[in-house]
């Protein structure tokens, strides 16, 4: 099963962005987002940014993911 995970935009290059979560960097397409900015938290699924998240909500989700048993992440 795949989940959309919160990631932080660290770099924007046109319609693509470099996003990070923990020690992982990834490039995603930004076409579904309105006015993305460096520092925004987004939900990414595969290579697609699907929505923006408030920072406090993103951090809560990331903390919950850390607390999961470490068998699949």
Can you give a write-up of this model?
The model has no long low-confidence stretch (mean pLDDT 89). The chain is an alpha+beta fold and 73 residues long. It has a five-stranded antiparallel beta sheet with strand order 3-2-1-4-5, with helices on one face. It starts with a strand and ends in a 6-residue tail after the last helix. It has one helix at residues 55-67; strands at 5-13, 16-21, 24-29, 41-45, 48-53. The chain has one domain: Roll (SH3 type barrels). A hairpin with a 2-residue loop joins strand 1 and strand 2 (16-21).
Give the structure's gist in a few sentences.
The chain contains one helix and five strands, in the order E-E-E-E-E-H.
């Amino acid at each position: 099963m795949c989940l959309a995970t919160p990631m932080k935009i660290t770099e924007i290059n046109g319609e693509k962005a470099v996003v990070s979560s923990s020690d992982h960097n990834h490039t995603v397409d930004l076409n579904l987002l309105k006015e993305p900015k460096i520092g925004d938290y987004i939900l990414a699924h595969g290579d697609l940014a699907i929505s923006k998240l408030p920072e406090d909500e993103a951090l809560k989700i990331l903390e919950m993911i850390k607390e999961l048993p470490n068998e699949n992440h």
